């Protein structure tokens, strides 16, 4: 687990900070962890900060296109 997150219901947002090496399954694991928290509300916006991590090759331009 190379992430931390903070749920802020007052702005309807979850802030996720990824660090170190980003693993392909991190987003799914983080999502499952997030929805178990009582602060989480359905349809919240999620903002991910990946600036300090290394993305895997699978996340190249073709992945997003």
The strand count comes to 3
Largest sheet: 3 strands, mixed
Q: N-to-C terminal Cα separation, in Å?
A: 26 Å
Number of helices: 2
Order of helices and strands: EEHEH
Strand order of the largest sheet: 1-2-3
Structural class: alpha+beta
How many structural domains can be distinguished in the coordinates? Answer: 1
Features:
65 residues; alpha+beta; three-stranded mixed sheet; 2 helices; 3 strands
Characterise the protein shown here:
This protein is α+β, with helices and mostly antiparallel strands. The chain has one domain (3-64). It is built from two helices and three strands. It has a three-stranded mixed sheet with strand order 1-2-3, covered by helices on one side. Helix 1 (26-35) links the parallel strand 2 (13-21) and strand 3. The mean pLDDT is 88.
Summarize the structure.
It is elongated, with a radius of gyration of 13 Å. Strand 2, helix 1 (26-35) and strand 3 (45-54) form a beta-alpha-beta unit. The protein has helices spanning 26-35, 61-64; strands at 3-8, 13-21, 45-54.
SSE inventory with pairings:
Elements: E1 3-8, E2 13-21, H1 26-35, E3 45-54, H2 61-64
Parallel strand pairs: 2-3
Antiparallel strand pairs: 1-2
């Amino acid at each position: 687990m190379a992430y931390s997150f903070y749920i802020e219901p007052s702005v309807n947002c979850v802030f996720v900070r990824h660090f170190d090496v980003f693993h392909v399954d991190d987003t799914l694991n983080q999502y499952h962890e997030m929805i178990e928290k009582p602060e989480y509300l359905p349809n919240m916006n999620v903002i991910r900060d990946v600036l300090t991590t290394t993305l895997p090759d699978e996340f190249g331009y073709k992945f997003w296109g």
